[in-house]
Amino acid sequence: MLEIAVSARLGTFTVDARLSCETDGIVAFFGRSGAGKTSLVNILAGLVKPDRGRIAVNGDVLFDSARGIDLVPERRRLGYVFQEGRLFPHLSVRRNLMYGYSRAPKSALNLSLDQVVDLLGLAALLGRRPRDLSGGEKQRVALGRALLANPRLLLMDEPLAALDQQRKDEVLPFIERLRDELGTPIVYVSHSMAEIVRLADTLVLISDGRVEAVGTVEDLTSRLDLRPLTGRYEAGAVISARVAGQDQDYALTELAFSGGRLQVPHVDAPLGTELRVRVRARDVSLALQPPKNISILNMIECEIQDVGEEEGPQVDLRLNAGGTAIWARVTRRSIAEMGLRRGTRVYALVKAVAIDRSSLGRVAWMRRFLAGSMAREPD
After folding, report:
1. How far is residue 136's CA from residue 159's CA, in Å, rounded to a whole number?
2. What angle do CA 279, 284, 285 make, to 5 degrees?
3. How far apart are CA 14 and CA 320, in angstroms?
4. How many whole angstroms separate alpha carbon 95 and alpha carbon 107?
5. Cα(216)–Cα(256) distance, rounded to whole angstroms?
């Protein structure tokens, strides 16, 4: 359990954050640049001292202003991976890794060097210096160093932000392995919804130094009132699905969810694998009748639940497909000409090729969080 209730004045910026959630899997801090994500993580790590409040991880109190508790960073047993690897340039990869191991209390030594090297694919890099590593390799070594400190919680602050897409694609599978194979609790800071969909189990939305909502990725991305925080251009539904079939002839995978099925480009996963699928609102078209002779493979019968009130030519509509939320973005002209309103039955059309690798995330943990565990408190 991660419990944070702190207030801090940082220059002209104020952090006033409250949250309580389970630490199983990956807890993602999401928000725009300047929202206060890094400030909150630095407070959690002990790098910034809040003016007042309390922080506890799995019952262990790290900070409590009322009781005079303020553990120094090295006693909090929190691993930290920054945007840049911050490796020691004069040490080899092996010695960088062992630096983390040497700082772990003997009672907490659950991981060995060999285990971490194997998990992160570092065997070929052990004799190199940081200057001889790619950006992705540096981040993998930084991950290993943090893990070998055997932390109770691993903090990752925008760890992929400094990498190009190729290097991001190189590192992401290793973060998934940490989540799936080690079970190390992770707080992951990002402003990329693609990373959140792929990795996160619990989503924490942060804005102006405050926690606005805590919940599952599926729930929070389906809420119209949170659209300004989850992002409009890339906005869409996040759907829980499972692999229901493989079409080897056409390299397609069939995903089943409570409201229907989706054909997507081939996913290398066995039948029954649980996935999260992001369907962007801008990739969904609507029809009043089932269309014929079109190239779009996915047609899902829905009912309109909400119509957005955005100004401008585009409007977002929330659809209900058998209990699953789907979003569509259409023009005001289409709404008027088709007579679209709450309760209208429509068919959501989704191109299979619109659902790429960045739109898929493997489900590895039961998602749990405390009801009412967040939220901005009344002023």
Report:
1. 10
2. 170
3. 39
4. 22
5. 19
Tokens describing residue 296: 């779009």
What are the pLDDT digits (tens) for 277-327?
Answer: 989 999 999 999 999 999 999 999 999 999 987 778 999 999 999 999 999
Three-state DSSP class for 13? Answer: strand
Which three-class secondary structure state does DSSP give residue 69? strand
Cα distances (angstroms) measured from residue 132 to each of 114, 129, 147, 237, 309: 22, 6, 22, 41, 53
For the residues of 339-376, what is the DSSP string, one character each? T--TT-EEEEEE-GGGS-GGGEEE--S-----TT---P
Coil vs helix vs strand at 76? helix
212, 203 Cβ separation under 8 angstroms? no
Both tokens assigned to 159: 């760890």
Question: Which tokens is 222 given?
Answer: 């389906």
Whole-number percent of the chain with pLDDT over 90: 56
- Helix, strand, coil share of the chain (percent; to 5): 30, 35, 35
**Residue 337 near residue 353, CB atoms below 8 Å:** no
Q: Which residues of 30-61 are buried (b: 16+ CB within 10 A; e: fewer)?
A: bbeeebbbbbbbbbbbbebebeebbbbbeeee
Q: Which of 91, 103, 99, 160 is nearest to 127 (CA)?
A: 91
- Sequence-distant (≥ 6) Cβ neighbours of residue 371 within 8 angstroms: none
Torsion angle in degrees (nearest 10) through CA of 90, 91, 96, 100? -80
pLDDT in tens, 16-46: 999 999 888 899 999 988 899 999 999 999 9
Residue 230, token pair as written in the block: 């989850």
202 secondary structure, DSSP code: E
Asked whether 143 and 178 are in contact (CB, 8 A), the reply is: yes
Closest CA relative to residue 282, chosen from 256, 323, 317: 317
The distance of Cα 329 from the centroid of its chain, to the nearest Å, equals: 23
Distances from the Cα of 42 to the Cαs of 4, 105, 139, 155, 298, in angstroms? 12, 22, 19, 9, 44
- Give the span between the Cα atoms of 148 and 196, in whole angstroms: 25
Q: Tokens for 329?
A: 């973005």
Longest dimension (CA), the chain: 71
Residue 350, token pair as written in the block:
């989704």
